[in-house]
Amino acid sequence: MKLSEIPTPALVVDAAAMQRNIDRMAAYFAGRACKLRPHFKAHKTPEIARRQLLAGQCTGLTCATVGEAEVVVAEGIETEILIANEVVGPGKAARVAALARRSRIVVAVDSEYGAADLAEAARAAAVEIGVVVDVNVGMPRCGIAPGEDAVALAGRVAETPGLLLRGMMGYEGHVVGIADRADRAPRAEKTMERLLSTVELARGRGLPVDIVSAGGTGTYDITGALEGITEVQAGSYVLMDTAYARLDLPFEQALSVLATVLSRPRPEQCAADAGLKACAVDHGNPEVKGVPGASVLFLSDEHATIALPGECVLAPGDRIELWPSHIDPTINLHDVLYAIDGDEVVATWPVAARGYIEQRGR
Amino acid sequence: MKLSEIPTPALVVDAAAMQRNIDRMAAYFAGRACKLRPHFKAHKTPEIARRQLLAGQCTGLTCATVGEAEVVVAEGIETEILIANEVVGPGKAARVAALARRSRIVVAVDSEYGAADLAEAARAAAVEIGVVVDVNVGMPRCGIAPGEDAVALAGRVAETPGLLLRGMMGYEGHVVGIADRADRAPRAEKTMERLLSTVELARGRGLPVDIVSAGGTGTYDITGALEGITEVQAGSYVLMDTAYARLDLPFEQALSVLATVLSRPRPEQCAADAGLKACAVDHGNPEVKGVPGASVLFLSDEHATIALPGECVLAPGDRIELWPSHIDPTINLHDVLYAIDGDEVVATWPVAARGYIEQRGR
After folding, report:
1. Largest Cα span, chain B
2. A37 touches chain B (CB under 8 A)
3. Which domain holds residue A194?
4. Is residue A120 located within the same domain as residue A88?
5. Å from B320 to nearest chain A CA?
């Protein structure tokens, strides 16, 4: 199949550029104490996860949902999975316990409620579930307060039958996207002091803290260079997007939204068939790849309205590519990724964990 | 199944409120020359489309993509389908021609290129494809210029073997969302003059213009009240969202995103498990239903971070519901809708046309 034959809208991966990203990240962690735990949520695509693990330097995979972990296990990917998110709600803990029978699973916990729920499911299934205590390092989302609160929770996890305390995590999501490294680095280091001092406190109380997990694409070589951090949860580096491209990172944009021009009603504008259902806009509108002077004005459900310089020759039937601003929710809109080498489609990779798999078959 | 047993995040439809919306819209069009052509893109859910058609006053269904039309036909919904969008790109015209063998299909065209592409596919499949000329009424997206340009294209469509000129359409998408009806109504009427004068010009040249299609939820009783408009393409009215709720419309919000509270790290904030992959934010953050003083601060991939009044008792494991700002891309994130009556799940409706069905099975 040729690139020109792909029905649009569709996501296209430059397979060679993606592999270079994977290799660059693996090269960074080679020879270091800290390793990588690639975040599966970024792409939800087993074929990509396999390539990330194959490059080595990985402690396992990170997932954001139980459903993602279920897909990883169902695909036969044998590695340790960290669900770096609180698992709360009907059926969730039981699903984790079922996974723990088949694979090595570690789950983030930040409350007594979450710990008790998991422990009950673990005991019912006669398994042990690994736990990392999720420490709030400054981002207002999840995570228990650093210091005594976090250590107390870790202590109770360590004493709870069914749970196995594995370590601690903290995600500095509020600093990973800061454009200027001179600003980003000290702020990341400061947030990580909250995690590392909490780890030290816990170890001082005799608690086992083997995993110290943190970081993202924007801080892989800042957080990843700190003594005591054992792994980095980076995801976006593998395909990149315009938001991360604004940072000074050695990774290439390898994912674009392929679209067909539907209409060129006026010289200064065209409409293409990639809209809100093909490309997420939470980090801003996508950029137009390789068309000088072109810019996306707005997306509607099935359209990108694009401003064009008058001399641009784009006409109905022509193809364009858009660089998304945020790959995670963009990939989640599609059922497959088309891996290309130049004009050739070399593979079609299912986005197997797209959506919420518990809804399928209902 | 009870509401409390639904795995989250999930979309919940108040089935009775939805039916009241359907009945109110049907009541408006009863006894009028103008009818409704409900837009399937809003929900992509055959079970909802069936209820819309059952209420009567419909000329058929509107779709935005060939894939949506394929799902409607595959589901055995026998009605005329208007693909109110340009169909351009590899395989698309052939798919329309295949549908035209099994169902009544009308497609929007705004260029010679689009007309020629459809005509070739129609002749190859030995079918005739209905066409409406898409007239630009002011929204910068698709549509040929009103007046002579549009009429000339209509004339060529009428002469083209394989194509059957059925009429004209124009979507006033730039005015449907204006909050104040006193502002919205005259602007909608003015945009519609462009369509109606073009229709008159075409008829004066002897061209058959039976369908004059326009309008949306915000203008159903403005555009729909104009002499000469034969149908309104409203979609959002059936479930509504916070964007349309700001208008003075007689429809109820009937769709919410059900979420579970994961964490309450501080009294002033909680995190719930509905993020960017469960709820679109292109029209703004969702609103929190029924929790006084609560507001969404931001969504990340799998989290809503919500500001709470200190006295609010929400804790991990509790449920909340979010009102989305834009239903179309929100529903497209899910595989099913849970139809509820109070605390009972009365049905689970597949979002059968979610995503791009041409990607499935690849």
Report:
1. 71
2. no
3. 60-229
4. yes
5. 12
